[in-house]
Every structure is written in C-alpha cells, then in structure tokens.
C-alpha cells in the first residue's frame, strides 16, 4: 500500500509505502498506588499511559523505558507484553501500532511530569480519572482483566 | 528523529520522522509436523517464518493472518504473542519492528508457497533447515525455549 507525499518546493508527488507508525505504551502498576498515568499537555487532552514513538535505530524495549522516564521521571523495569494494539482509529492523528509493556518502577519515588506530559501520577484502577484518550481505556480494561483472571481462584476479593 | 528524503524531480530535501517499519511474523507449529517455514524467493535467501509488512489501515493481527495465507496458502488462527523483535540490525535492508504471533493452522492441509515464498513446508524443530535469515533463528530458539519451559516438569523428554 502506498501513500503520496507532495514535495513542498516543486509539488512533485512522491510515492511511499504506507505503514502504521510503531509506538510503545507502558502499564506501570503497584497494587497500593494503582496505575501510572500522565495528563497530556497536548491534544488530544486527557489521561494516557506513558508512551510514544519508537525511533529508527532504537528497540521497542528501549523506547518503552525511555518514554516512561521522559514523561514520568521514573526508571522502570519491563516485566512483559500486555498486548499489541493497532486498530487504525486508535489515534485520531494517524494509524499507530503500539506494543504495550507491563513494567515496575525501580524505586518508590513520586513521578514527576516531563516532556509533553503536564502531570504524572498513580491512580487506583477502580477510580481512574477521565477522559482517558486513545484506546488506553481498552488497554487498562485488558490489564485489569488479566489481573482478575490471574486471581480468579483467590477467595479474597481483589481490590484497587 | 528525522530522516531526509530527496525529491526525485527537484532534489529538494524533505524531512520525515524516522521510525522502524512495523512487520509481523507467525510461528505455526504442530507437534507431529514441526514449524512452518518458507524458503524465500528474494534476498536475503534462506528460510524464514511467514510474515511481512503491516499496511496502513490494517491491524497487526490481520496482517499476520494475511501474510500466513499469502505465503503458505494456510488459513491460521492466532493463539498469542511470542514477542516483539526490533533490534535495528535484525533485517539488513532497514530497521523493522516485528510482532511475532503464535498460531495454529485451521486445517491439516499441505502448505502451498505463494507471494515471495519459493517453498513452504513444516520442519521439525530439532532438524531445522539452514540458513535461517533475519533474526528468525533467535525467534525459533525463543519459541523452543517457551515449549521446553512449559514442559519442564513433564517426566517424558520433549521431542520434535
């Protein structure tokens, strides 16, 4: 599949392969604090998982650790892949394909917003702020489901 | 991160965001047949997992099912994500980021090579053909390790 780009000087049409743009998002969760979200400083406004574009020459894992650090000030250790989210309408700006990692913070430090995040904080899974942008509400539901599934046969009800 | 493209008509330099290109690969495995590999009809020559580029407007899951079908003639059902592989040097042609799905064939039909695959066949995991291109040897090792780990406490030795 191709897309056409116009040369800004001469207007010539240039054909390029059209692919989704690869991104990463990170679910950082501590049971007694909740999940780490950023409040976006740019459109679309609202709450989102820390994340961003994978740069050429960079691994997806490096991008995930870098974006978490840039947006929340926290160093994280990746613990797995929750899923890959690539619905063409998941981001209103363009088609992105996001690898969503689960991670733990390296310390109990308070998050500190940076880059294009206006705020960064932990939020209990059962009291999430709104609106949550992109498809991050679906991702957070999948994460909560995976926690619930893993704890299905624990007699005490799961909280937080 | 940016890359510069030259307009083929006027030579004007056009700055574009530089990201890896998203791809998918599929590990189709049946214990009594082995893993489904294609013999590539184009460079780099050798054996590879079925897979290819994710098109704009297409989900990663759709791309995985489509590529498996185009290259091997088999309809598959996805069973999970083995991992995401994005080392910048994994493909000699350009930086790609591949979501590797595990899958099962919908039928026991023989594979039939198509698209840029010269041949398609199942190969026992312990008698893989060579050379295996890209980082698909590493992916197949990770897959074999995941099988071995899942069967670690089975007293009978795992074969195939």
From TrEMBL, chains A, B:
<protein>
    <submittedName>
        <fullName>NUDIX hydrolase</fullName>
    </submittedName>
</protein>
<feature type="domain" description="Nudix hydrolase">
    <location>
        <begin position="19"/>
        <end position="145"/>
    </location>
</feature>
<keyword id="KW-0378">Hydrolase</keyword>
<dbReference type="InterPro" id="IPR015797">
    <property type="entry name" value="NUDIX_hydrolase-like_dom_sf"/>
</dbReference>
<dbReference type="InterPro" id="IPR000086">
    <property type="entry name" value="NUDIX_hydrolase_dom"/>
</dbReference>
<dbReference type="GO" id="GO:0016787">
    <property type="term" value="F:hydrolase activity"/>
</dbReference>
<dbReference type="InterPro" id="IPR020084">
    <property type="entry name" value="NUDIX_hydrolase_CS"/>
</dbReference>
<comment type="similarity">
    <text>Belongs to the Nudix hydrolase family.</text>
</comment>
<dbReference type="InterPro" id="IPR020476">
    <property type="entry name" value="Nudix_hydrolase"/>
</dbReference>
<dbReference type="Pfam" id="PF00293">
    <property type="entry name" value="NUDIX"/>
</dbReference>
């Amino acid at each position: 599949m191709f897309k056409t780009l116009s040369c800004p000087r001469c207007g010539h049409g240039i054909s390029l392969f059209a692919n989704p743009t690869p991104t990463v998002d990170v679910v950082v969760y501590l049971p007694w604090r909740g999940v780490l979200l950023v409040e976006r400083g740019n459109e679309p406004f609202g709450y989102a998982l820390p994340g961003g574009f994978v740069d050429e020459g960079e691994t997806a894992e490096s991008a995930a650790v870098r974006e978490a650090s840039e947006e929340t000030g926290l160093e994280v250790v990746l613990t797995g892949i929750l899923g890959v989210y690539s619905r063409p309408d998941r981001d209103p700006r363009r088609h992105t394909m996001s690898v969503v990692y689960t991670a733990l913070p390296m310390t109990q430090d308070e998050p500190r917003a940076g880059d294009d995040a206006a705020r960064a904080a932990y939020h209990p899974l059962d009291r999430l702020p709104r609106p949550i942008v992109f498809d991050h509400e679906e991702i957070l539901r999948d994460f909560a489901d995976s926690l619930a599934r893993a704890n299905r046969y624990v007699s005490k009800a799961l909280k937080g």
